[in-house]
From TrEMBL:
Binding site for Zn(2+): C120, H128, C144, C147
Pathway involvement of the protein, from the record: Energy metabolism; oxidative phosphorylation
Signal peptide: none
One Gene Ontology cellular component: respiratory chain complex IV
The protein, known as: Cytochrome c oxidase subunit 4, mitochondrial
Keywords tagged on the record: Membrane, Metal-binding, Mitochondrion, Mitochondrion inner membrane, Transit peptide, Zinc
Major localisation: mitochondrion
Upper lineage: Eukaryota, Fungi, Dikarya, Ascomycota, Pezizomycotina
GO biological process: maintenance of translational fidelity; mitochondrial electron transport, cytochrome c to oxygen; mitochondrial respiratory chain complex IV assembly
Pfam families the record matches: COX5B
Gene Ontology MF terms in the entry: cytochrome-c oxidase activity; zinc ion binding
């Protein structure tokens, strides 16, 4: 019994220096460029972004592991640059759940695209399972079929460039019952 315990203790003692050495080695490798005084890579900040060509990272200094800030591109880079300055690029906040949307005062859903879906959980929030309501630029208002909450798309995307995106290859949205409601009932 004593022998077993002694062997275990010895093994533990032997293991610790090995583990330490491994850890220290990787730490040195990570810190090495700083010691050599490599200048931090320059990149464009959020306010300097003018076009998609500005959304390329500078890459990582030789011998280092690149970070997202070093190497991300495109809209991912835009999001990261925003986070650096505390700007929520994609507006990830939940929708207004302080009231129930009505036809006169709908809950606004910001959208940068032609189509937007919003998940309704009722009012108060989480009072029913998620029901997805769909809005388009042509038909911006939709109502939850479970609780009647009214949502309206608040389009914040680019202005129309005259290419007629609304009339893509003659596509027409399928008609719904709403299309046959007499105007006097609206
Ligand atoms: Zn609902």
């Amino acid at each position: 019994m004593f022998m077993q315990r002694a062997a275990l203790t010895a093994a533990r003692r032997a293991a610790v220096p090995v583990a330490r050495r491994t850890f220290a080695t990787s730490l040195v490798r990570c810190e090495a460029p700083k010691d050599k005084d490599v200048p931090a890579p320059q990149y464009k900040t959020l306010s300097e972004i003018r076009s998609r060509d500005d959304l390329f990272g500078p890459g990582a200094p030789v011998g280092t592991v690149p970070t997202d800030l070093n190497q991300s591109t495109g809209i991912e880079r835009l999001e990261i640059l925003g986070k650096v300055e505390g700007v929520d690029i994609f507006d990830m906040r939940p929708l207004d759940a302080s009231r129930k949307g009505t036809v006169a005062e709908p809950i606004l859903v910001r959208s940068a695209g032609e189509e937007q879906f919003a998940g309704c959980t009722g009012f108060p929030a989480d009072s029913h399972n998620v029901i997805w309501v769909g809005m388009t630029r042509d038909r911006p208002v939709d109502r939850c079929s479970e609780c009647g909450n009214v949502y309206k798309m608040d389009y914040v995307g680019p202005e129309d460039d005259g290419h007629g995106h609304h009339d893509h290859h003659g596509y027409e949205e399928p008609k719904t019952f709403a299309d046959y409601v007499k105007p006097e009932y609206h």
